[in-house]
Design brief:
Elements (H helix, E strand, L loop, with lengths): L4 H18 L2 H7 E8 L5 E2 L1 H10 L2 E16 L2 E14 L2 E2 L2 E11 L5 E10 L2
Parallel strand pairs: 1-7
Antiparallel strand pairs: 1-2, 3-4, 4-5, 4-6, 6-7
Helix pairs in contact: 1-2
């Protein structure tokens, strides 16, 4: 059976979720493109090394991450994912619990693997 791009994205999104929960910097490093642009829930612009360092140092601690309302659009070798996440954890030592909305842009890398090239995280009011 040939795996569709949409199925690949569903699987890699779950791999990303598990890496975020475990603060698995090795997997996160693999999934984030070197040139990724991230806008976090505090409207700060981050680069790849900022995100990896936050996980590695414990600045971000995620205890639970429950996805819902996932939407995927595939456009050739680019995919856009919109997903709502119920998060339990902390950021900079302060509790960060609640509903968040993630938008991610995935692109096929030259080696045929998917990388996130842009991400936006917002709190759901």
């Amino acid at each position: 059976m040939i795996e569709t791009f949409e199925t690949q994205i569903i699987n890699i999104e779950e791999r990303l979720r598990q890496a975020m929960l475990a603060s698995d910097v090795s997997v996160l490093n693999e999934l984030l493109a070197p040139e990724i642009i991230i806008t976090n829930h505090l409207r700060a612009l981050l680069e790849k090394q900022d995100d990896l360092a936050a996980h590695e140092s414990g600045l971000i601690k995620i205890n639970d991450l429950k996805p819902s309302e996932q939407h995927i659009q595939v456009h050739g070798e680019v995919a856009i994912v919109s997903v709502r996440m119920q998060i339990s954890g902390s950021y900079e030592g302060s509790p960060t619990n609640g509903d968040f909305h993630f938008t991610r842009v995935w692109a096929v890398h030259s080696r045929g693997t998917w990388h996130i090239i842009a991400a936006h995280i917002g709190m759901v009011a």
